[in-house]
Fold these 4 entries.
Entry 1:
Amino acid sequence: MITQTIFYMLIVFVGTGGELFVSRAMKSIGEVTDFRPSAIARAIGRGMSHPSMWTGIFFMAVAFFALLAMLSMSKVSFVFPSTALSYAAGAVGGKLFLGEQVTKQRWIGVAFVCVGVVLVFLGNK
């Protein structure tokens, strides 16, 4: 049970942290508006030269392998719905670390997701 909890935390918090790092890197290089192959290659190059991108990729890889481990121990009908808590972590992380504006309507949606995750946990007996 402790091992599953550790893997779950890695999926939700480390995975979300990775997404926040990648988002920070992509915001620093600017919006991609030119979709010609050479422009896309330049955008990828700029993104890959940003340290936050590599940190994000590493965190997301850790979360991916934790997800694989979790799937080997638990039912998929539990694992995927329960990891929806990462949506809530993403909203909080976007607000705190990226300075994003999160509307009241989004917070209500996050609350619904959290209620759903609680229901999934209660049904995992």
Entry 2:
Amino acid sequence: MDAATILEIRPALSHFLHEFDGCFGRRTTRRYLDVYVTGQLSDLDRKSVEPLADAAGVPPRSLQEFLSLFKWDEAAMRDRLQRWVAARHGDPNSVGVIDETSFAKKGDQTACVQRQHCGCLGKLENCVVSVHLGYAAGDFHTLLDGELFLPEETWDQNRTRCRAAGIPDDVVYRPKWKIALEQVRRALGNGVRFSWLTFDEGYGAKPAFLRELAGWGQNYVAEIPVSLVGWTAPPPVLYRDHARDKACTAGTPPRGRPRRLPRLKVKHTPACEVRDLLTYSPVVRRIPWQRYRVKEGTKGPFVEEAKCVPLWIKDERGLPDGPHPLLIARNVLKPDEVKFFLSNAPLDTPVETLLLVAFSRWHVERLFEDSKTELGLDHFEVRRYPAITRHLLLTCVSHLFLAEFVQQRKKRRRTDGLPGPNRHSAAGAAVAARRTLFAADRRAHRGAIDVNATAQCSRRPQPPQTNAAAIMGHRNTATRPAHLSVAEKVAL
């Protein structure tokens, strides 16, 4: 934002940042929060510590110490941010998105850096990776959490190197799915509710992750790898060893070790990889493809062909677990690119619902893009672990304010009589009054998580959609989302 825009929003920004006053023990430390967030919202080309400090007229060394040395409670700041979102942006149709992003770095001194797959470059490169949790509700979306991934061999097994980089001894290696699981648990404990969670195959390939979410009663639509195996019909399971029971009845002592029960019968249909179902499964082949307009892109509508079948997957004992809806989708223009999604929703969940959730990951991709291009998420030049984690958190705070600012500006435009996002709807029409694509189900109330949690909704959730009226004009239409374009809506 230019100087005039920042002066215009200064009262709202000051009110917003006062929410985090209790995270700082000293007033002299607290004032650097204003400096950092205002600098990230400004129109500086580079938003590392030195340009931010120079623009605010403070010593760069002081801002560096604010990130790395000054004492303040970043965990309390994260909790207050999430409670703010829960209180002001709670929505029965919300979607949580889990994803990771990377930051290319040179050298080997930056905390958690190693040569690994760098998503921003699309190749193996020296980089830092962080796991994030995003929140989307209607035309609003923001980042709720972010945490660095600590590599096992190059960092966790070398505690001397960790201490030199400022990594506490209690921070140890955890797989990315465990980091994401903890982030979801924290958000639920702070009152945030997700009607659905969605994530890519890096997390969908972890059965323990899916089982934990299902145990919480959390609905999800997970992209899965094509090598995942399962059955389209449940195989027979043996719960009693009848031959052994018969021998005991006849008075003959059984021989050998007793077999593990329950187990699959000897004669059963072997599990099949999901990529082979389209070719070899008669159940899948009988279901016709149906076309759905998922969203409107910059190059036109994004159309997918999809079909849905029940799938039984293997649990931790190798037994069938299910049935789960298996969503198979392919792009109309690229039919060879087939994606598979697994859900724990009821089997009668409409395909439109599963598609909406499955393709809601554009929200977190947009969040990363806006945070990097507008707020300097990848501009950090600090190396120590506390400074990087605080930078990730402060960027979440800046993005939350910016997302609310953009949302309020949109509302003012619609209130002034300007056209809304729906071409044939009156400006400012209530979304709740429109007909929904999703009916209620008979699912039981989900269990609460943590002490601050409340009972979950017992209705099947509806993913966020901003153009519901326009959608209903097409029988097989998923959604046409309105992107939160910071670059277009705000002159930064």
Entry 3:
Amino acid sequence: MNKKNAVLVIYTGGTIGMDKNPVTGLLEVAGIYQLCRYIVELENFHSRIDYQSISRQIDSSDMTPEYWEEVAHIIEKQYDNYDGFVILHGTDTMSYTASALSFMLENLNKTIVITGSQLPMSFLRNDAYDNFITSLIIAAESKVPEVCIYFEHKLFRGNRTTKLNAENFDAFFSGNYTPLAEAGLYINYNEPHIAKPENGKLKVHYGFDQNIAILKIFPGITQTVMHQILNMKNLLGVILETYGSGNAPTTAWFSEELKKAIEKDIIIFNILQCKSGRTAPTYSAGLSIDGIVNGHDITGEAAITKLMFLLGQNHDIKTIKKLLITSLRGEITTL
């Protein structure tokens, strides 16, 4: 490196920075500097590291679009001052945040790595140390102009991930897209699968509309339940989680409820319950109703944040349906 690269660490909270309350024995969110005191080697790190926290450090279960916008605002304000960014975040909603930020940040030319841990840095045995240190190195090298998640030796495209395991260190899964890098003795980048740098200036888009719902199909779902969900006040869109490759009940009332919702300009975005694969009309039970948007191989987290994001940009319905099946940040394979 010709210069000492600079990385900004944005601390939101989460397990990685938690410490055990001596009275209750419960884990509580601690401050960024309390976290970093466990890593002596940071003093000799090859890049300059600065720290900034969001207004209130939270358990990621409390994550909301308002916090996504706060993080995006920090990145927008500091973008020209740093070579890369590391966001420390709880695991429960990490994939949602990664997906949301990917849609918000247009023309991204620097690496943003979101990481965390299953055990806190304050524990003698933990996964936090490697996740944090390796994320700093990847961010400083800035070879991946994407919003990523680094966890347990793998760097993923953030909007392709889902949390799969609550107890193992390899908590995240990317069923439809290969890792962008793997870290062993060396960090090996999978260059053919990394997005190409954009030429334009970073543009940050704000605004999420939360008037959506998730409708997960299950054996025995009743028309009453489905009707109530599709007729909720102010509802603008529904993530419809179907079986297998996009299969759904073939009963007449099921199709009629969906058709009535579509006639009221409610967006129906059909995605899989499976963690890998894609929607495809392979069987007679395949959902093929005019007006339903095919989610292809998008994850649930990316589908939810993308729909809220597009609704928040005040596009008309026709444009939103078109953009939902368009790969904006590599979140969907449409071929």
Entry 4:
Amino acid sequence: MDLKDLEVYQLSEKLSDFIWNIVLNWDYFAKDTIGKQLVKASDSIAANIAEGYGRYHYKENKNFCYFARGSLEETKTWLRKSMRRGLVNQAKHQELFDIIGKLPKLLNSYIRSIGTKTNDK
């Protein structure tokens, strides 16, 4: 299986691209404060999944997935702040959280599968 075939990876890429496109429209102050943090956190989800996938040992792969899980929580925090501060409207916020709502289960399932015969590269 290729990294790009993993649903958790595809969805995390979709999320970070969606966030990027939202933040692009913010003013300089919002981009420089919350925007940079939000983009980095959301990009880090897929990046950590990819880095773990490229590691040789299963324990390393799992460890990077735990980092991805932390980045997911950080992303949620920045999104809640963005909404409270009027940077993301309710409709976009809901769209984002619809995507985010699927990621923990997929990520945890992927973590459990690492090192099993069905998930060998």
